[in-house]
Design goal:
With about 625 residues, this protein is of the alpha+beta class. It contains 21 helices and 20 strands.
């Protein structure tokens, strides 16, 4: 081994994943490496470049990784000696999603993918390092050793890494199948007629092998086997199999490990169970276009409601897949909430493009479940519009513009799939489209004289999130609420009684309280009887304890537990109960393609019925705490 190769091997062995390799394996890798001297401010690769045939590790200097978003360069991370980056060629076929630029003069080792791939397939430690790092978008997953792997995946602000590679993953569920005795020429004709590039060789509907275009080219077209050969002579066997709920990351790494381009999907993930489909390398490439960050980009490029509806469909698929993979609901809510708000924002932008520039600054606030980032299903749209104060003589014209704008946005969102709120809580309603001063008066009236106009107030107006516009307007609304909330016993009296006024979830005999009449007779109203009491209680205590900036019910309870240690157990139990109830509602809504509000108890599994009943237990404790904490007299 020459001196340079020896020095490179000595350097690499100090850092993962190279420290998992044997001395001989390190020699092979080191001898294949190309050394790059990169001057300061020079770029190794940039966003959109075709993938290189190598990945990289820093020998000396610093490499900055960045991404271009909305015409701005955003710094992501820096790579120092021992750090590995540029691994995208291992996992994807599309172009680079970030830029690697020298912050100072650097020496970079370029490691050919073809030279390193065999060690990934043969070494479980190397494979696990890549799997954990790539799937979690993190640094060295196990510890803080020198040297880390920088994922080549870009996530939008606030995205939880756990979810990134569990999005919707579609594959062919009706693969071509043949028997081992079939002749090559017949199988080739079958593939041609159906425009498929693979066929599974099966026995009793269980896979025993696979044949792809590559096999036909390398084994038949070259003359090694005649067309009359039986297919079992050229098939690849055993075939790599995966279960039906395999994730994108898992499929990518299994392909990488096996150095194959197809995976057979079976009922239990083994070759001893029924064939359920086939995953091609192309399916993985398509799936990468459905991760949350890409969905946000698609939304920004959308030109009409049809485009936005298509993205919302992908979001639904991603939510379903995430539920199947048992991703924590709080993470799913966070991602879904960001994407939903992006859809609203783009709807506003498209409407402005059609109407012309607004005559004043404004804020579009999503309220209710969307304002709390709890809208996983396609339920109602609820929103308000607040525009800055204008001169009296301009008020009518300004309000007319914003009412027209709100009407267009509401119509766009309806086409996407969000039906208008049946209670009229819409910015297109002149009651909920007005100036900042008028909104300040509105909130002050609600808080100072609650219940005077009972059909006008709704507690969901206190759950809001800005989707578009001027953040300072939203801040002004928040300041009004929290400046007025102190010593407002009457207001808390109203909210407390409102929270307790919901119909009970259980009967006197501890059975589920089912609807007695109407179209939902004999079903359980999980929204009104179970979720809303918890939502109302969380809002009530959050306002009373002056907690700003947290709208999500689960996070409100978690914050309340931190602030009020005396009642922390009650709040934590409510947090977990809310998550369990929400998951049941979303799961049932997805299954029945509806709002999930009304649950057929008989159709739930015994385990789900038990989960549902247990989730209702903390409600008595939170109701008692409301009665003990607030003077509930006037509105009782």
């Amino acid at each position: 081994m020459n001196v340079i190769v020896e020095r490179i091997a000595d350097f690499l062995k100090k850092y993962p994943p190279f420290n998992y390799l044997s001395v001989d394996e390190l020699k092979i890798v080191a001898s294949s490496i190309h050394v790059i001297n990169l001057e300061k401010d020079k770029t190794l690769f940039k966003v959109g470049d075709h993938l290189h045939d190598s990945f990289y590790t820093v020998a000396s200097g610093i490499i900055n990784l960045s991404v271009i978003a909305d015409a701005e360069e955003t710094f992501l991370n820096k790579c120092v000696a021992g750090d590995v980056f540029g691994l995208r060629p291992f996992f994807a076929k599309n172009n680079y999603m970030m830029t690697a630029k020298a912050r100072e003069e650097c020496v970079i080792f370029a490691i050919p993918i073809v030279a390193f791939r065999p060690f990934v397939a043969q070494n479980a430690d190397v494979l696990n390092f890549l799997l954990e790092s790539f799937a979690t978008n993190s640094n060295n997953p196990g510890d803080q050793n020198k040297g880390k792997l920088l994922s080549d995946n870009v996530v939008f602000q606030g995205q939880q890494p756990e979810i990134q590679y569990f999005q919707s993953f579609s594959y062919n569920k009706t693969p071509l199948k043949t028997t081992a005795a079939a002749q090559v020429k017949d199988v080739a004709q079958l593939m041609t007629d159906n425009l498929f590039n693979s066929v599974i060789v099966s026995e009793k509907n269980m896979p025993i092998g696979i044949v792809t275009d590559t096999d036909l080219r390398s084994k038949v077209a070259t003359g090694r086997f005649p067309l009359t050969t039986t297919i079992d002579k050229i098939m690849s066997s055993p075939v790599l199999t995966v279960p039906e709920n395999v994730s994108l990351a898992e499929a990518q790494l299994i392909m990488l490990q096996g150095n194959v381009t197809h995976l057979c999907v079976t009922q239990d993930g083994t070759d001893k169970s029924e064939i359920k489909g086939i995953i091609a390398e192309h399916d993985l490439i398509v799936a990468q276009a459905s991760n949350p960050g890409v969905l946000i980009k698609e939304i920004k490029r959308s030109q009409d409601a049809k485009d936005l509806k298509r993205v919302r469909g992908k979001l639904t698929d991603m939510i379903q897949t995430s539920l199947n993979k048992n991703i924590p609901l709080s993470h799913i809510n966070n991602i879904s909430g960001e994407i939903s708000l992006a859809i609203v924002k783009r709807s506003v932008e498209l409407s402005i493009l059609e109407l012309g520039s607004p005559p004043a600054r404004f804020a579009w606030l999503s309220i209710g479940s969307q304002g709390r980032k709890e809208q996983l299903l396609l339920t109602d749209q609820d929103h308000i519009l607040v525009f800055e104060d204008v001169a009296a003589e301009k008020y009518r014209d300004v309000k007319d513009y914003f009412l027209k704008l709100a009407k267009k946005v509401t119509e766009t969102l309806q086409k996407v799939g969000y039906n208008p709120c049946p209670n009229g809580h819409l910015a297109s309603n002149m009651l909920w489209c007005k100036s900042l001063t008028d909104w300040i008066k509105q909130y002050e009236n609600w808080m100072n004289t609650p219940g005077e106009i009972s059909n006008e107030i709704s507690s969901i107006f206190f759950d809001y999130e800005i989707a578009y516009g001027e953040p300072k307007i939203e801040e002004a609304i928040t300041d009004v609420i929290f400046n007025n909330v102190r010593k407002k016993k009457l207001f808390f009296d109203y909210l407390g009684n409102d929270a307790l006024r919901k119909p009970p979830a259980l009967t006197f005999f501890k059975k589920f309280a089912l609807e007695e009449e109407g179209p939902h007779k004999d079903k359980f109203d999980i929204k009104t009887r179970a979720l809303m009491p918890l939502i109302d209680a969380a809002r009530l205590f959050t306002l009373s304890l002056h907690i700003k900036g947290i709208n999500n019910t689960y996070l409100r309870y978690k914050q309340l537990a931190m602030i009020d240690s005396k009642h922390a157990e009650i709040f934590l139990n409510c947090a977990e109960a809310f998550q369990a109830l929400s998951k049941i509602r979303v799961t049932e809504g997805m299954k029945n393609d509806d709002s999930g509000q009304y649950i057929n108890i008989e159709q739930l599994s015994k385990n789900d019925r038990e989960i549902l009943k247990n989730a209702l237990l903390p409600m008595r404790d939170i109701e008692d705490l409301i009665k003990d904490s607030f003077q509930l007299t006037q509105f009782s």
